[in-house]
């Protein structure tokens, strides 16, 4: 359009001749007023402008209007993170994730430092562990400072640290949390414990095997010692914090006989027994996998030697060994 001073057509020109008509510019639909619009050489017009706050990032649409005429469509301007003052303020959860079972979910929130520009802000999400799954991205709508997302738990035994990373325009925010299995939740369908047991005054026993299974409600546990299918002793117990197992009640309806290979007393008809042990996880588990770990605890078994009469015999002592977890 025309300029002041006028620049005659078809003649060489070099300098500055501002446009007579005002020029307006839209960047990603945000209005921008140029600080200069005019001719700087023959046939060449120049616009000087300041990028507005929070225009967005990437190839953004650019359009200029003067005297009712518009520039051609599909023109873009490429902006990186330095052109936007919006940053990720936090990615977090209002409550700690407690694992109640694989597939449990909780809501997290992405928070920005300011309102998202036109087109919104797409924040990429990533989890460091299968213990927590998050969507690959979450969109904070234009004008909003936050957006929710759903995090889903995987299989966790005991506790496991996890980091959730949110990324946008070259900057990242990392949130650390710990995922724990709830006390009432069974981390296994069957636990096989192979201890090394040293009863006081007797040789070391290396073949005693404990099978621990949860009930249908995952609230109590049953420990079977040496021969679950043959009517051997059964004990009822509970778990504390998912790591310590306490058994001190004989389950009725069974012979409550126990045979420790290597024990000089042989088979016992039990009158009482207690089994307490704590577990240490050595690898994570997921559906269909087996986890291994170590145990440390104490076993006390009081009973009468099978076929003998007289005073009861008490075997007691520390136990240590390994376990495996079978997960459905």
Description:
The protein is an all-beta fold and 328 residues long. The chain has no helices and 26 strands. It has strands spanning 14-18, 23-27, 30-32, 36-41, 44-48, 58-66, 69-70, 76-79, 88-93, 98-99, 105-112, 121-127, 132-133, 137-140, 146-153, 159-168, 171-181, 190-197, 210-214, 221-225, 234-240, 244-250, 257-259, 267-281, 290-305, 313-326. The strands form five sheets. Strands 18-19-20-21-22-24-25-26 form an eight-stranded antiparallel β-barrel. Strands 2, 3, 6, 7 and 8 form a five-stranded antiparallel β-sheet that branches. A five-stranded mixed β-sheet has the order 10-17-16-12-14, with no helix packed on it. It starts with 13 loop residues before the first strand and ends with a strand. Residues 98-102, 182-186 and 284-289 have low confidence and may be disordered.
Strand order of the largest sheet: 18-19-20-21-22-24-25-26
Low-confidence stretches: 98-102, 182-186, 284-289
Molecular shape: rod-shaped
Q: Share of helix among residues?
A: under 10%
Could you tell me how far the N terminus lies from the C terminus, measured between alpha carbons in angstroms?
A: 76 Å
Helical stretch tally: 0
Largest sheet: 8 strands, antiparallel, barrel
Query: Can you write the helix and strand succession as a string?
Result: EEEEEEEEEEEEEEEEEEEEEEEEEE
Integer average pLDDT? 77
Q: Give the number of DSSP strands.
A: 26
How much of the residues is beta strand, in percent?
A: over 45%
Helix/strand/pairing category: mainly beta
**Rg from alpha-carbon coordinates:** 36 Å
